[in-house]
C-alpha cells in the first residue's frame, strides 16, 4: 500500500507519499481499500499539531473516507469482503488502504457513490445534530447559516430546507451566494458587501422583517459571532459549531439574557461516542434522505490522491465550495 505519512507535524510540506506494509485487520477491524477521501479543516490542523486529537507519530492523515472492505478481522459480522463502506476515524484516509474499527463503518446502500460517501458523514452528522437535535428546528422557522458555501454550511442549508425552514445563507462572494441559492437557500447575504458589524446586522434585519433568525448556525466564529447574536430572534438558538475564521469570540453574556436566547454547543463527535444508538438512528435517516434525493454533498472538485498537497493549498485559499475529495484509481 501507499499513503501520505506525517512523521513531523509541522505542516503540509512535511507529508511524504510512502510505500508501507499492507496491514492485517485484528479482531473487530476491517481493512478498507480506499476509493475516495475528503479533505476537512481538521485534516489541516492535525498535520500542523494544532488539533485537539494528537495521534502518535508517524500517522496517516485523512479523517473521512469511503471504499471497499478488503479483509475482515475476527468478530466482524455486519460487514464482509466486497462491501462498500464510509468511515470517519480521524486518521488513515489519505492512502490506498487503511485499517478501521468495523463499528465506525457505515455500510453504503446500492447507488451511494464513493465520492459522495467520502464527503458525507462529517458534514451531515454535524448539521443534523446541530439543527434537528440541539436546536429542535421547526418547520416555518428561519435559519441563518454562516459560512454557508463550505462543507457543513451546504449540508446545513439542505437539512434546514428538508425540515421545512426558511434559510438565509451568508457567504463571502457572489459565486458562493449563487451556489447557496442553487441548493435551496431562500435568501443570501454577501458579507464582503454587507460588512460586519453594522451593514451585516442591517441586512439580517431587512431579510427577517426586523424579527431576526430563530436559529443561527455558526461554524465561523470570529468577528461574525457578536453581530449575528445581536440580530437573533426572541427565544433564538445560537449554534456554536466551530471557528473556521480562527479567533474564538468573546460574547457578552447579557446578550442571551436580553434576547431570551440560548447559546448551544454542537459537538457531534462526543454525541456519537456518548449516545451511539441515537447517532446510529440519525445516520440511518440521513442515508434514507440521500436515497430520496433530499440531500447530496456539494463536491467542489475531485483530485487524484497524489495531488494532496495541491488540494491543501486550494482549501487554504478559501475558494472551496462544498467538499474537496481525493480519489484513488
UniProtKB/TrEMBL annotation:
As recorded in UniProt, coiled-coil segments are none
List the PROSITE patterns: QOR_ZETA_CRYSTAL
The cross-references to Pfam families, in alphabetical order and at most eight, read: ADH_N, ADH_zinc_N
User: Which residues are in the Enoyl reductase (ER) domain?
Assistant: 11-326
Q: Which SMART domains match?
A: PKS_ER
Q: What is this protein called?
A: NADPH:quinone oxidoreductase family protein
Native species? Curvibacter cyanobacteriorum
Which branch of life, at top level? Bacteria
